[in-house]
Amino acid sequence: MTAVQPLKTTAWMALRDVPWRAYLLVLPALSLVAVLFGGGLVLAFLQSVGLLGLTGDGGFSLAAYGAALGDEQFWRSLGLSLYIAFTATALSTVLSIGLAMLLREAGRWASFACQLTLPIPHLVGIAGILLLLSPSGLISRLLYSLGWIWISSDQDFPLLVNDSANIGVMTHFLWKEIPFMTLILLAVLRGIRPELGMQARALGATPWQCFWNVTLPLLRPGIVSASLIVFGFVFGNFEVPFLLGSTYPKTLPILVYQAFTNVDLNQRPVAIALGLLLSLISIALIALYLWLGSGQPFRRRLGGQP
Amino acid sequence: MSRNLVLMLIVAVLFLPFVPLLVWSVAEGWYFPQLVPQQWTGANWAAVVSPGSRVLQGFLQSLAIAALSTALALVVGLPAGRALGLMQFPGKGAIKLALLLPIIVSPLATLMGIQFVLIRLGLSGTLAGVVLVHLLPTIPYMTLVLSSVFANFDTGYETQARSLGASPAQVLWRVTLPLIAPGIVVGALFAFLISWNEFLLTFFVGGGRVLTLPMILFTSLQGGNQGLTAAIAVTSVIPALIFLLFSSRALQDDAAIGGLGDV
Predict the structure, then answer these.
(1) pLDDT one-digit tens code per residue, B185-220
(2) Between B135, B140, B151, which is nearest A3 by CB?
């Protein structure tokens, strides 16, 4: 979205738009986020190295990080978290682009349909999917009553929730995130002038070329930001893998939760160290993604061509 | 024609998880092979709406927390959205990214850090403490939506009102706010929904004493009473659905939704 510049620029407005006023306007929001988020991170770090907290002698120590990284479970959990976040984000992104293109001309009804899951709490989705996909769930009952041979009791139904492949988790994230991304992409698509596509077509581009060379590049900023929000969310989510996911290995946020709620207070710094590692990994991945998403590295490789 | 079919299919798939929830909430002893429950009951709903029920208390507490954090996010999000949407200044990109961090980086470490201070301030396990941490995700969403709304706002209207003798307060109240009202509704909708649905933040800071509706649903999900769980789950959807219906007109504002695609 580009800023629409006001047509008339009076002296009063020029004075009004000097930067200090802008900084003053963002100050309340920025300082609240800085104090809560930044302050929280600093306090977490101080606790994780033993400089602050209920236990320990108050000396600097990296023992918590050693304990966190030395545990084999950490690496298994990291792998699982990355697998779930990457798969769910990639699938939702590709399917949302397809769906948005398909619904592009369907009008406002398409957006309205995509808004259906927007207000549904994740926990409600989890409850619904449990009652739908579990061995004694509605789908299993439906197949049973249809008389399908391979299912003679609820024991025969394939495990789709709390399964080792995390199908239940993936189903939930796709159910929730595809409409969310499609809604954003539809709004961005409507902001793209249709003349651009028409012109490309008139100049002989195939529908595929038109999509690949005209629409997709224009849609890219929307795709990058929407998938970024989804990736960050899925990677840090706790309740979905906790209630629908595999029993072993567990995702990183569940590992943090278990260490935090451990009765042994010495586990507290380990929980915080794990939480900080989780934040650090997501910040690194986001930075990498934004760098790749900006198209900068590809541009450089092609020798400065736009 | 085929497009309408696709649309209907999408709506059906999206609605599918609600089918067992709605049936379970009024079913009695719905055992495995039965496709349709043999007996129906109103007991689950009676338990939800009975005076003094935990669900009802949680409902009101969630409502209060969501309303307060939405209002606070709006107060700081309006000026920030204006600056980010209408003005050019050095460091704008960095500020935008900083405001976005709380929704894309896992809040777990931050929460454990904040918790340390909240305990000492006596805010741990209080409504005020929960509202405070709910600002972490609500401010970014509110600011994003409003900055996109302001980017499509013509300040010429304000200049005109000022030149006709309106005071800055009058301009804000009579010109600016009415013009961006649809955007405010969308921002408030997102902030309200995020606070209403929030589980993890409440769980860490509420210390088990602030029992919002998601907390009660989470506890119920870990228990075995599927009928009651289903009734609580359906209850959790009601206010958000009402809010969505009232704001469906405002949600047609592409600039507001598109703000989430402009990070």
Answers:
(1) 989 988 998 999 999 899 888 878 889 999 999 999
(2) B151
Cα gap B210→B135, rounded to integer Å: 16
Q: What does each C-alpha distance from A101 to A46, A72, B34 come to in angstroms?
A: 49, 44, 41
Chain A positions in Cβ-Cβ contact with residue B226 (cut-off 8 Å): 131
Runs of H (alpha helix) within B198-253: 200-206, 213-222, 226-246
- Residue-number span of the structural domain to which A130 is assigned: 80-293
Distance CA B67, CA B165 (A): 35
Question: Is residue A116 in a domain?
Answer: yes
**Across the interface, do A132 and B154 touch by the CB < 8 Å criterion?**
no
CA A232 to chain centre: 4
- For B22-44, what is each residue's pLDDT tens digit? 988 888 878 777 778 888 888 88
The verdict on residue A75 lying in a domain is: no
Structure token digits, residue B107: 């809040």
| pTM across the whole model | 0.86
Asked, for residue A74, whether it belongs to a domain, the answer is no
Chain B residue with Cα closest to A220: B261
- Here the tokens at position A298 are 């590809």
A101 interfacial to chain B (CB closer than 8 Å): no
How many domains in chain A?
1
* Phi and psi at residue B27, to the nearest 5°: -100, 150
Whether the CB-CB separation of B129 and A19 falls below 8 Å is answered with no
The complex scores an ipTM of: 0.87
SS3 label, residue B256:
helix
